[in-house]
Amino acid sequence: DYLYIPLGGSKGSPLRVVLVMVVTMTLSGLWHGANWTFAAWGLYHGIILVAYHLSRKSWDMLPTLLQKLTMFLITVFGWVFFRATNFSEVRIWFQSLFGCGTQPGGALTFDYIYLLCICFLCLVIIHSLPVASRYSGYKKIKKWQNFILGVLLALSLMMMSETSRFLYFQF
Q1: C-alpha distances in angstroms, 60 versus 65, 66, 131?
Q2: What sign results for the dihedral spanned by CA atoms 143, 145, 151, 157?
Q3: In 3D, which of 154, 151, 148 has the Cα closest to residue 123?
Q4: Spatial separation of the C-alpha atoms in residues 110 and 142, rounded to whole Å
Q5: What Cα–Cα distance (Å) separates residue 7 from each residue in 11, 14, 40?
Q6: How far apart are CA 32 and CA 84, in angstroms?
Q7: HSE (CB half, 13 Å, CA atoms) of 5?
Q8: Phi, psi dihedral angles at 45 (to 5 degrees)
Q9: Which residue from 54, 89, 125, 164 could staple onto 84, CB 3.0 to 4.6 Å apart?
Q10: Is residue 42 within 8 Å of 29, Cβ to Cβ?
Q11: pTM: predicted TM-score of the whole model, two decimal places
Q12: Are 80 and 30 in contact (CB under 8 A)?
């Protein structure tokens, strides 16, 4: 409200509304820290907000689980900007996330990415079945969903190579 409304909020032309959303989110990123990576983090979220604003009808027609998983992945990728100290580090982190990096112990291999994609696809298929709730075995499917999520959690925990300081201790 402190930025969005004074800048014009949702009043004005559609282009102005989009600009106000992006500027507000970018400045909100800078509020978190005096570094260009924080501005990039805010800009990233501003672009996500605009994308949702422009495609709301299509997005809202997607299955709820697909919306949640997609938004989770989009948000997680955005945290790279928040955590990195400079853009070189952002590049290294994204390379490591996709198995192309040089971070020791932190890089995902293509085998892990393949496994994670299969698990993600299984979850999407299970949750997208409109007839799943009609069968008495639906409760078993929920157990399998929990199992898959547990496997994903275990994989992510195994891939943590070191502990890190609390982020806000950097300021």
Answers
A1: 11, 10, 20
A2: negative
A3: 148
A4: 28
A5: 9, 14, 20
A6: 13
A7: 2
A8: -70, -30
A9: 89
A10: yes
A11: 0.61
A12: no
Altogether, the residues listed in the chain come to a count of 171
Phi-psi region of 150 (alpha: psi -120 to 50; beta: other; left: phi over 0): alpha
Tokens of 18: 């989009």
Q: What are phi and psi of 31, to 5 degrees?
A: -60, -30
CA distance 64 to 10: 26
**Residue 28 dihedral angles phi and psi, to the nearest 5°:** -65, -35
* Sign of the dihedral through C-alpha 63, 67, 69, 73: positive
Q: Which residues are catalytic?
A: 32
